[in-house]
Amino acid sequence: MPDGASIILNASIVGSKGFAATACYSATKAAVRSFARTWTTDLKDRRIRVNAVSPGPIDTPGLNELLASSATGQQRAKDDRRHGAARRLGRADEIAKAVAFLASDDSSYVRDRAVRGWGHRPSVGGGGRPCLSRRSMSSKAAR
After folding, report:
1. Per-residue pLDDT tens for 2-40?
2. Which of 53, 63, 86, 141 could bridge across to 101 with cysteines, CB 3.0–4.6 Å?
3. Any catalytic annotation for residue 25?
4. Domains of the chain (ranges, CATH numbers)
C-alpha cells in the first residue's frame, strides 16, 4: 500500500449496540472498529488514513431474507422502519457516497472516524466528536 493511501473498513452499528442473537456478528464488527483505531496509530508515519463505515440496516436481498426468516426479524424490520430517523432502510448507494468521500483527498484530515447509523440511530463522528456532516459527504462525493 502506498504512503498517503486510505483504508476504509466496513463495520456496522451492531458493533456498538446490543441486539438480541447477534453476539458473534457484533463482536466481529466491534473488532473492525478496533482495527481502525489501532491501524490509524500504526500507519500514521506513512500518512495512511484509516476510517470505518458503520451503517445501520441497508436494504439488500440478504438483509430482507434474514429479517423475513423469523418473527423476531419481522418485528425488527417493522421497528427499523418505524423508529429510525429516516423511517426506512438505507440504500447501498448512500453508503457508497460516504465511502467515496473517505477515499478522496477531500477527507485527508479525517482519521479514525466511524461514519455510522445514518437514518437509523444517527451519529457521525468518533469518540463522541462530530467530524463529518451528511451534507459534506454527499456534496464532496458527488464532485
Report:
1. 999 999 999 988 887 777 778 999 999 999 999 999 999
2. 141
3. yes
4. 6-142 (3.40.50.720)
